[in-house]
């Protein structure tokens, strides 16, 4: 047996033992000391943890920079909590509401939401839920005690009580499944169950039931009033305003997506900047914002008049506008499918339709942008009818172009020839005959694209209708002068011609 | 002046006074008595209220009949509440946890959710949030008190405390805006703020801080354990199972929608039953279920192994499947646009493509149904490759048919002639020349429909991929025998040929 010793660059030593039976030498790697391994593992884990925390902080920072109102909201919560905590520090107030001052703190933490509407919703739900449940529970209690004293032994009344308790709690729980209640009074129903349970159950222990109820209600009213004051007075975030801005932004995104889509299809060879790519995918925001729209519209019903919106502002109409925009966005999704499709039309055929398609696209997005402007300025647009007219005449032109497509002879489209030369099934003869007549297969992609564009135009008209309904319901003003109107029209036409 | 008196059928009396100047007689209608008017108004209101309550009850009843598990959930809440209330009735237990038994009741009401995952999520969030906040608050308190005694006057330490309090509450509030935290720990963050506030604030009043913390934690643990027991042992509703069923149902709906769509387009003259109309619109469920899918997938991460799902079941993959189904549903939306479009292709041209389109549609929906079966049985399908192959060859056939479309002479399509006879712009000549060659305008609608179908096929393949990935990740078994396989194939082919 031989033992060789080699020096390692790392300073360690490798021992290899050669057994005298001709087998290859076995290498003995010296085990790292336990301490160093633990240290290495720990170092690795700490490094990973630190980088994770760092990434998390960067994400949080970006979130704060993107929407500083979130930071303001946090400060508002801090202020409300500090003020409500004073109830603990100030002796007179403390004695006024007793140990129940805790409920005021709890109310602030639970009720304070990002938007005014959400906060008001929770506040009113909490107050009404608590009051109703308290009254009901005390009533049930009183009836049970009266009948218990006069008619039945105490034990039966207790069973009655339990049954009532069970039924009420279950019914209230079930009510939270009903959509209309869930949308508006879900929190109230929970508070109802909570209060009802607490009062019913504690009725056996605490004699001063009315005192307790009174104290709880007053602390809740203190907490909710404070929340309402802070949320409406310090940089208020209105759910209505949020919905309004969301719809507006989505409208712009939809218009840009449409523009990007059409130009991407016809000029796909050109280099696209990252910004243009982002604009192209803006329609996805429209597709995904249904949930947010519903939530915001739900909270608007709790909000008073604010900013440019009066109390009876038709918030529901924004949902209709959102739905019509989504229906348009579905078609843009299908357009993107055309762009990504493998069956692309020959460039020559694309060229034939390029200008009219670009015109239809830019006219349609122009209409959407004008609608966005209508909503933004809250003034009826004078140019919208003109723009819609232009859009429709562009569609007419596109339809004529589609008809003229068939004038192309197949000699102009080599790509189709290649395709038709590899037919694989029984219809070969028929299709070759077809190929000799007209390169239909080559134009399918572009025809699909064009007819989706036409569909988008008709869906854009649905958005126009929805916005018009809004402008009537919300009584938007007509203030643009005739002079302005013609200027704007010229501007719009110029823009369109520049884009095409 | 004359006064006439007429008898009314209603038993009332009408007095008309004729003034002597030739003017028509004035009729004096006797005022209804106040009481009767109030009574009528009241009756009307009561009737309306009763009918409203009645409709509400009917709605609730239907909800309960549709999904009896909702009723069971309500009973479960009732049971949990009853059990937890026993803490108030049983003296030994009551003395054990003191007046804080209230927290157990509160925990049950707040934490008990419909699905096991949601309940577990809230339970763990509540326990961890309370513990962390309690520890932190007591720690801060202790440090402040130590330094207050040794180094600074008490008032400074109070200010320090307030700053710490403000910072922590604000930071925790901000964390609720961060998407990853919002998805998993939103409730925990709220409970953290709540507990931190309560302990920090009450630290000045209650000396037995540790006792309080211990009691609160133990009542919360009692409440959460009870909730977990009831929710998992009595008819558990698993979020994972719900997600699984939702995806399965949506897949069937998508397949039926696709079938309905294609047959509606080609046989729109036929009478449609209400059921078929409903099936046609099934794709809307797919479009609208993103929110539910996200929520359910979020809760699955809290659930242990259950039913046929082990602990590491790849729930996220269901979201991918859902997304691929939605991408398919967008195209079906565009198909519906074709069906509703005013520009319909002449029946003759439709007939040319009818059979292949129906074949592509039924093959594609057959593939989706097979995928639904794969998920339902949790067994890898042996026929899926064959079905996908058939689908693709049907697409090939459709493409060939599209090519052969151009063989039609325009004499067969009178509708196109009508259209081309009303041209309104400069391209008139060109388009009329086109019309003489080939009725392209008339086929645009059907070409669009067909190419959307082809797009749907390629998106169906994306669903196939997503489901295959799921079957690999979740290790679905391969159990269908060769014999079965060929039988199934025959069955499938028969079904397809029957549908065409």
UniProtKB/TrEMBL annotation, chains A, B:
Pfam families: ALMT. The keyword Cytoplasm does not apply. The keyword Ion transport applies. Residues 409-433, 481-500 are annotated as: Disordered. GO terms for cellular component: membrane. Residues 423-432 have a biased composition (Basic and acidic residues). It comes from Acer yangbiense. Its main location: membrane. Belongs to the aromatic acid exporter (TC 2.A.85) family. InterPro entries: ALMT. It is a multi-pass membrane protein. GO terms for biological process: malate transport; monoatomic ion transmembrane transport. Signal peptide: none annotated. It is found in: Membrane. This is Aluminum-activated malate transporter. The chain crosses the membrane at residues 71-89, 101-120, 127-144, 159-178, 185-206, 218-239, 434-454. Keywords: Ion channel, Ion transport, Membrane, Transmembrane, Transmembrane helix, Transport.
